[in-house]
């Protein structure tokens, strides 16, 4: 009888040990932390941030960190800004025309409202005297945007550009890859400002020989100056009165001095083209824009 009791006791202890061991394997290690498990999937996701661009008329400050801009479609809009943009905004005046880049963030609990935070703001003119110039007859007759034709990598494309007026009395269409300063006449490429064009309005009575002498002086500091004949010019610049070029031997940067006549007036384009990949897009975009330059009627 005692032997049977001992045997039953041993069996029960064995079952208990096996049960405890199974529980330790199944639950003691805690929840799985392997990639792709529910723990990863349950982590809160960051709200999507969208970067947008806009342009319009600066109307002033709504508070110390918020500006108000009337967009081109007439809609007023508020944008918040940080300390990094304080200097740029401090020099703006009411009715300045500005180009904006901003982040649009969703507001928690709001389906339609968005928070707009400025990344960049650039003055492109002043209302009533710059962009768009409502007082200039030819600016009124030209649309705010226009599809321009250009050739990229052998393919002909249509691309939208926006009209900008300069303080020197001309307007032209500018692609969104450029920034134009209407006060200085300097056009630069956003990805690399070393790709640039300086636009200059010249006296109407300036003779071709004088133009060539001036252009030669401008380019001579970079290297040997060559006159590009009409046959050798790019198709987009066949009608130029003068086309000079010089190349820097040390870095391969090409400098061009192109002069065109518009309504009896002469315009000079001093173009800087560094050696690099952006030049493939820079040159056709620049030529397409410069071919739209028109003098504003007084």
Give a verbal description of the structure.
It is a single chain. With 298 residues, the chain is of the alpha+beta class. The protein folds into 2 domains: 50-126, OB fold (Dihydrolipoamide Acetyltransferase, E2P) (Beta Barrel), CATH 2.40.50.140; 137-295, Mog1/PsbP, alpha/beta/alpha sandwich (Protein Transport Mog1p, Chain A, 3-Layer(aba) Sandwich). Helices cover 22% and strands 40% of the residues. The chain is built from 6 helices and 16 strands. The chain has helices at residues 2-27, 38-41, 86-90, 137-141, 208-220, 279-290; strands at 50-63, 66-71, 76-80, 96-106, 114-126, 145-152, 155-165, 170-174, 178-181, 186-189, 192-202, 226-227, 242-247, 254-262, 265-273, 294-295. A 7-stranded antiparallel β-sheet has the order 9-10-11-15-14-13-12, with helices on both faces. A hairpin with a 4-residue loop joins strand 7 and strand 8. The N and C termini lie far apart (126 Å). The model is unreliable at 1-6, 27-31 and 128-139 (pLDDT under 50).
What does the secondary structure layout of this molecule look like, with pairings?
Blueprint: H1 2-27, H2 38-41, E1 50-63, E2 66-71, E3 76-80, H3 86-90, E4 96-106, E5 114-126, H4 137-141, E6 145-152, E7 155-165, E8 170-174, E9 178-181, E10 186-189, E11 192-202, H5 208-220, E12 226-227, E13 242-247, E14 254-262, E15 265-273, H6 279-290, E16 294-295
Biased composition (Polar residues): 26-39
Keywords: Signal
Region (Disordered): 26-45
Query: In what range is the share of β-strand residues?
Result: 35-45%
The major pleated sheet works out as: 7 strands, antiparallel
Q: What is the H-and-E element order?
A: HHEEEHEEHEEEEEEHEEEEHE
Q: Ranges with pLDDT <50 over ≥5 residues?
A: 1-6, 27-31, 128-139
CATH architecture of the largest domain: 3-Layer(aba) Sandwich
Would you tell me the overall average pLDDT? 80
The CATH homologous superfamily of the largest domain is called Mog1/PsbP, alpha/beta/alpha sandwich
Signal peptide: 1-24
Keywords: Signal
Biased composition (Polar residues): 26-39
Region (Disordered): 26-45
């Amino acid at each position: 009888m005692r032997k049977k009791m001992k045997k039953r006791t041993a069996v029960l202890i064995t079952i208990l040990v096996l049960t405890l061991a199974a529980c330790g394997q199944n639950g003691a290690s805690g929840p799985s932390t392997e990639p792709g498990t529910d723990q990863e999937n349950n982590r809160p996701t960051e709200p999507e941030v969208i970067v947008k661009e806009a342009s319009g008329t600066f109307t002033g400050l709504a508070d110390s960190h918020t500006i108000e801009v009337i967009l081109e479609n007439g809609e007023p809009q508020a944008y918040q800004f940080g300390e990094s943009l304080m200097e740029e905004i401090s020099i703006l005046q009411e009715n300045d025309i500005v180009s904006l880049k901003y982040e649009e963030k969703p507001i928690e609990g709001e389906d339609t409202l968005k928070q707009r935070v400025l990344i960049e703001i650039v003055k492109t003119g002043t209302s009533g005297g710059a962009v768009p110039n409502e007082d200039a007859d030819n600016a009124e007759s030209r649309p705010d945007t226009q599809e321009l034709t250009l050739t990229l990598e052998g393919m002909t494309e249509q691309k939208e550009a926006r009209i900008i007026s300069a303080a020197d009395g001309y307007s032209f269409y500018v692609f969104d890859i450029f920034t134009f300063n209407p006060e200085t006449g300097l056009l630069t490429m956003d990805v690399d400002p070393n790709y640039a064009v300086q636009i200059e309005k010249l006296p109407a009575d300036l003779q071709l020989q004088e133009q060539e002498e001036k252009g030669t002086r401008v380019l001579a500091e970079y290297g040997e100056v060559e006159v590009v004949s009409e046959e050798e010019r790019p198709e987009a610049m066949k009608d130029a009165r003068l086309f000079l070029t010089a190349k820097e031997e040390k870095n391969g940067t090409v400098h061009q001095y192109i002069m065109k006549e518009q309504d009896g007036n002469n315009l000079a384009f001093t173009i800087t083209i560094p050696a690099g990949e952006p030049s493939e897009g820079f040159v056709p975009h620049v030529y397409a824009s410069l071919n739209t330059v028109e003098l504003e009627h007084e």
